[in-house]
Design brief:
By secondary structure, this protein is mainly α. The protein has six helices and three strands; from the N terminus they run H-H-E-H-H-E-E-H-H. A hairpin with a 2-residue loop joins strand 2 and strand 3. Helix 1 crosses helix 5. It is elongated and about 60 Å long.
Amino acid sequence: MPSDPFVATLEEWIKVSRHRLMRNFIDYARKSGLSMSHIGALFHLYHEGTCGVTELGNHLDVTSAAASQMLERLVQQGLILRTEDPDDRRVRQIVLTDKGNRVLEEGIRAQKMWLGDLTETLSAAEKEDITVGLKILIEKVRTLKQPVEFAN
């Protein structure tokens, strides 16, 4: 445990908020019949727009064959679509469907539901104090150097 009370408090906040964020999202994913690998694939597509099976496999740290098999279930659920690469018809590109986008957006809403409950417990003065502190943290984090990427 850190001896600095500020660091200890920050670590506790990160732990509690991460748990709340992930718990609601994992519950939503389970109710939707999705594994965390499926969610990881959907989020990657959500952020990238399109990608190939190999790229997605690399992102998820699985073989192309395993990624392809996993993607088949998402195709069957209507969450993704395989399309031809306009530059190379032999290559398949993966994209989210409208249904896939909706599922992710619903998951994100489920993930954030606890924030409304938390907000209701705070007074106007507490909200103001926390807003000031969080804005300082956000500004400071944005000025930090990017972390060095680890080699696999």
